Amino acid sequence: MNGLAFLIPIALGLGLLGLGAFFWSLRQGQFEDLDGAALRIFVEDEEEPS
C-alpha cells in the first residue's frame, strides 16, 4: 500500500507534464503544417547557375 501512495502521484505528475508539453507544442504551432514536410520530398531543387 505504501508503494501505491508513492507511484500514483508520480504517474499523475508525469501525465500532467505530458499534457502540458502537448498544449505548449500546440501554442507554438508545432502541428500547423502536417503535410509540408511530407510533400517536400517531391519538390525538385533548382540548380544555381555557376
UniProtKB/TrEMBL annotation:
Tree of life domain: Bacteria
KW GTP-binding (keyword) present: no
Pfam families named among the record's database cross-references: FixS (PF03597)
Chain ranges passing through the membrane: 6-26
UniProt keywords, alphabetically: Membrane, Transmembrane, Transmembrane helix
PANTHER family (alphabetical): FIXS PROTEIN
Name the UniProt record assigns to this protein: Cbb3-type cytochrome oxidase assembly protein CcoS
Source organism of the structure: Sphingopyxis soli
